[in-house]
Design a protein that fits this description.
6-stranded mixed sheet; alpha+beta; 31% helix; 157 residues; elongated
Length: 157
């Protein structure tokens, strides 16, 4: 194996490790509950698009606001991501995986809402490292009562 091939393979391994870490830190951040500008910049490009079961959000600031508001519907959460496959093409990548999310409702009921589905994430390498440029969560099944959304809880399409 020549030096160029070794460098290419090392770069690919480093990219996979960075993307895997980013995805894991992102899911953990949902459970930590701090959704400020630093959080948004650490994970997303400015023009990120996030497709969720209740709608699509465009732009980092809009996503930050939406996630903050949505996560306030829960007292506690645990988000697990697994079976992730990563494909890298230069400065772009896709990550596909499974996600299991457990939520204790904040309505005082003690009810637990669980959702499971598949994720598809597009990423770009920036000067600050890999960032999510688009994501989609496609829920396959749920269990338990979902949170009651406030009347003004809307997501821009």
């Amino acid at each position: 194996m020549d030096t160029n091939e070794m460098q290419r393979q090392l770069r690919a391994l480093a990219d996979r490790a960075e993307i895997t870490d980013l995805m894991g830190r992102y899911l953990r951040s949902l459970d930590d509950g701090v959704f400020d500008e630093e959080w948004a910049r650490a994970f997303h490009t400015e023009d990120v698009t996030a497709e969720m079961p209740i709608g699509t959000v465009r732009g980092r600031d809009a996503l930050m606001t939406h996630v903050r508001r949505a996560m306030a519907l829960f007292d506690r959460t645990v988000h697990l991501g697994t079976n992730t496959t990563i494909e890298i093409d230069g400065t772009r990548a896709t990550a596909r995986g499974a996600q299991l999310s457990t939520h204790v409702l904040a309505d005082g009921s003690g009810n637990v809402f669980i959702s499971a589905g598949h994720t598809e994430t597009s990423l770009v390498r920036t000067a600050d490292g890999w960032r999510i440029s688009a994501s989609a969560l496609r829920v396959v099944w749920t269990q338990g009562p979902p949170p009651v959304l406030p009347d003004d809880f809307t997501v821009a399409a």
